Amino acid sequence: MNKETYFGVDVSPLSYEEIVESLKQRIAAGEQSTIIAVNPEKVMAAQENAQLRELINGSTYQIPDGVGILLASKLKGGQIQSRVTGVDMMERLLLMAEQEGYKVFLYGAKEEVVSKAFENIQEKHPAINLVGYENGYLQDHDALVERINESGADMLFVALGSPRQELWIRENMPRLNVKVFQGVGGSFDVMAGHVQRAPEGFRKVGLEWLYRLMKEPKRLKRQLVLPKFLIKVLFNRKEQAS
């Protein structure tokens, strides 16, 4: 797949539907796949953090989670047509699992969060095959790997925060029989109903970040990365036209 690159960081231009279809083919071929969300904050952090850049670029799909990535693609005449958010990508994969019969395991977050997320997913997708969950505080990772393999899980969603969740996936993927891995950050909190997403109107126009900023003014410092990123893209369009 042809990927766009921003300051050394790859981003996949595929839509939700294209990723789902690609994953079906890779699962059928017995290939393992990883999904990581990319936003301007991660791209800027990767300038100073070679390990983070390697984690992102080593993934199968780097989804354009931030509106800044979409705007940057438009500035450089790229192919990214819409955001692919981590939580919505997880929801699409859960639907795919329900329709195709793939087995799903959840790992991460607090016990009360992951257990409620597990319960709510089962209620929303009655035909889905959820085969287990574990909170993010388990210390015996060897036992966890064994348990996931014994469950027969095809998909594993890991909510440990980034880049910890991606590091865990990279370290344990060779020992796991899972075919699809996604680091989902705070998505379990959303699935559990502990965190409310922005209203659909905000999400449709790419202003979910503004809603979250209004709810949590302390995020202002993090959000200032967006204009810095776009200015950098604007002044480096020729270099980034890859």
From TrEMBL:
CDD domains per UniProt: Glyco_transf_WecG_TagA
Catalytic activity: UDP-N-acetyl-alpha-D-mannosamine + N-acetyl-alpha-D-glucosaminyl-di-trans,octa-cis-undecaprenyl diphosphate = N-acetyl-beta-D-mannosaminyl-(1->4)-N-acetyl-alpha-D-glucosaminyl di-trans,octa-cis-undecaprenyl diphosphate + UDP + H(+)
Pfam entry (one): Glyco_tran_WecG
InterPro entries found in the cross-reference section: TagA_TarA, WecG_TagA_CpsF
Keywords assigned by UniProt, alphabetized: Cell wall biogenesis/degradation, Glycosyltransferase, Teichoic acid biosynthesis, Transferase
Pathway field: Cell wall biogenesis; teichoic acid biosynthesis
EC id: 2.4.1.187
Major enzyme class: transferase
Known function: Catalyzes the conversion of GlcNAc-PP-undecaprenol into ManNAc-GlcNAc-PP-undecaprenol, the first committed lipid intermediate in the de novo synthesis of teichoic acid.
Alphabetical list of HAMAP family matching this protein: TagA_TarA (MF_02070)
Protein family according to the UniProt entry: Belongs to the glycosyltransferase 26 family. TagA/TarA subfamily.
Protein name: N-acetylglucosaminyldiphosphoundecaprenol N-acetyl-beta-D-mannosaminyltransferase
